[in-house]
Specification:
This protein is an alpha/beta fold. The chain is built from 16 helices and 14 strands. It has an eight-stranded mixed β-sheet, with helices on both faces. A six-stranded parallel β-sheet has the order 11-10-9-12-13-14, sandwiched between helices. Bound molecules: uridine-5'-diphosphate (UDP). Uridine-5'-diphosphate binds next to helix 1, helix 10 and helix 11.
Length: 453
């Protein structure tokens, strides 16, 4: 099979190579899915928001994702300029994330065939999300002669080092797969400086190709508002003390820590029972699917079932009302590569109590927009919640201020810079290319000559 595309000519001095079309790979979850359950969470929001902003800049985005139902049309226009392609790879239903490595060949073949129907050079860059997509992107990169930009979103080694008690570790095959993608990608996008350090330290990533691009928040949708009206909208009493958890329910997110903290607050101050309200928004996900009722059972066994309300995953506008209704949003995760929920809550003017792990110290400004807690002792969370409640007005202003430092438009702008730089690097004449790229060039040349056919 000949290579689909000759190397691009070098850009003229001072003129960046701008992508016209990005192939975004999101194998295991679709940007059209409702986040907050199963495999859909922050990554889905990231892809939706960034794709929209790229399209607004005139850069077309095609998102390839695995079809998980026979009802899905093969192609969906998400918004003008953003197309979602449902790829048939394996049975529609019944496959978990751990089954997907066996379907990567089928997925890759479908992606390559789609591109082969087009004129050569149709896509300018590949952006893969999560290691499964990175595996697909790595092959497509070499076939198409375009750079692979990769976002890991979470890393198995980091996750395994911070497991909740009794939680199952990520498999070794994932660790190996991630190492391969890190070695092959032209650019690695990290959410925070901490994630970039983890990539370098734990995965031997090339620091020169590892970029920090913070995610954003939709400041129009997630904005402060009338708290009393929000409480009416979500059905909470006006004088309630509302503690909010939002996210996929699984041990890694540690919603149990919030329940234990609430139980402790009630033990310390029994009169609080008449007005304490814990809202848990989301549905089981990942290893949480093994025992989907565990959290409800915990609430019963702690004797606080009367103050805890479980709310199914909410669309963004309703989610914003929940943030506005809350006194405090609590993010007690054992690990979090960033923590969009923390940022969205702050954008609504709600301070956050969060674990001081992963990206959360970036997402939350300790003492200004909320309080960071070391470890997962419920007593510390109860104390932090009390502290935030006492200073809520001050922290609320700090929360909104902090959130306004982030924007999806800036995220998209930094990604365009990363795409352009990677495209320019690929267009550099072979002699000044790195040894790794010279090997790839040789493979591509062989392929073009038909030797590998
Ligand atoms: N989310 C949502 N509805 C819900 C719960 C969560 O839309 O009911 C979204 C939320 O707005 C956030 C994302 O899911 O953007 C979760 O992202 P986060 O970074 O907090 O966690 P992740 O899912 O990436 O682990």
């Amino acid at each position: 099979m000949p290579a689909r595309r000759p190397l691009r000519p070098a850009p003229r001095p001072g003129q960046p190579l701008l992508p016209r079309r990005v192939a975004t790979l999101s194998v295991h979850t679709s940007p059209l899915d409702q986040p907050g359950a199963g495999d859909a969470g922050g990554m889905n929001v990231y892809i939706v928001e960034v794709s929209r902003r790229l399209a607004a800049r005139g850069i077309a985005v095609e998102v390839f994702t695995r079809a998980t139902s026979s009802d899905l049309p093969p192609v969906v226009e998400m918004v003008p300029g953003v197309t979602v392609r449902h790829v048939s790879a394996g049975p529609f239903e019944g496959l978990g994330k751990d089954d997907l490595p066996a379907q990567l060949c089928a997925f890759t073949a479908a992606v390559l065939r789609e591109e082969a129907r087009r004129e050569p050079g149709f896509y300018d860059v590949l952006h893969s999300h999560y290691w499964l997509s990175g595996q697909v992107g790595w092959l497509a990169r070499d076939r198409w002669g375009v750079p692979l930009v990769h976002s890991a979103h979470t890393l198995a080694k980091v996750k395994n080092a911070a497991l909740a008690e009794g939680d199952s570790p990520e498999p070794r095959a994932r660790v190996i797969g991630e190492e391969q993608v890190v070695a092959e990608a032209d650019r690695l996008i990290a959410n925070t400086a901490e994630e970039a350090r983890q990539l370098v330290r734990w995965y031997d990533a090339d620091p020169a190709r590892t970029l920090v691009v913070p995610p954003g928040v939709d400041l129009d949708r997630f904005s402060p508002g009338d708290r009393a009206a929000a409480r009416r909208a979500v059905g909470v009493r006006d004088d309630a003390l509302v503690l909010l958890f939002v996210g996929r329910i699984q041990p890694l997110k540690a919603p149990d820590v919030l329940l234990h903290a609430a139980a402790r607050m009630l033990a310390d101050e029994p009169a609080l029972r008449t007005r304490l309200q814990v809202l848990v928004v989301g549905a089981p996900s990942g290893s949480g699917l093994a025992e989907p009722r565990q959290l409800q059972e915990l609430a019963v066994s702690l004797g606080i079932a009367d103050v805890v309300r479980f709310v199914p995953p909410q669309a963004p506008d309703s989610l914003a009302e929940h943030y506005r209704a809350a006194d405090v949003t609590v993010v007690p995760s054992h690990n979090e590569s960033f923590g969009l929920v923390a940022l969205e809550a702050q954008a609504c003017g709600t301070p956050v109590v969060a674990a001081a792990v992963g990206g959360l110290p970036t997402a939350v400004e300790d003492g200004v927009s909320g309080v960071l807690v070391d470890g997962h002792d419920p007593a510390d969370y109860a104390a932090a919640i009390r502290k935030v409640v006492e200073q809520r007005e001050l922290l609320s202003a700090g929360a909104r201020r902090h959130a306004t430092r982030f924007s999806w438009d800036r995220t998209a702008g930094s990604l365009v810079d990363a795409y352009s730089a990677a495209m320019a690097e690929m267009a550099v004449p072979p002699l000044v290319r790195s040894p790794r790229d010279r090997v790839r060039d040789a493979v591509r040349a062989l392929s073009a000559s038909g030797v590998t056919r």
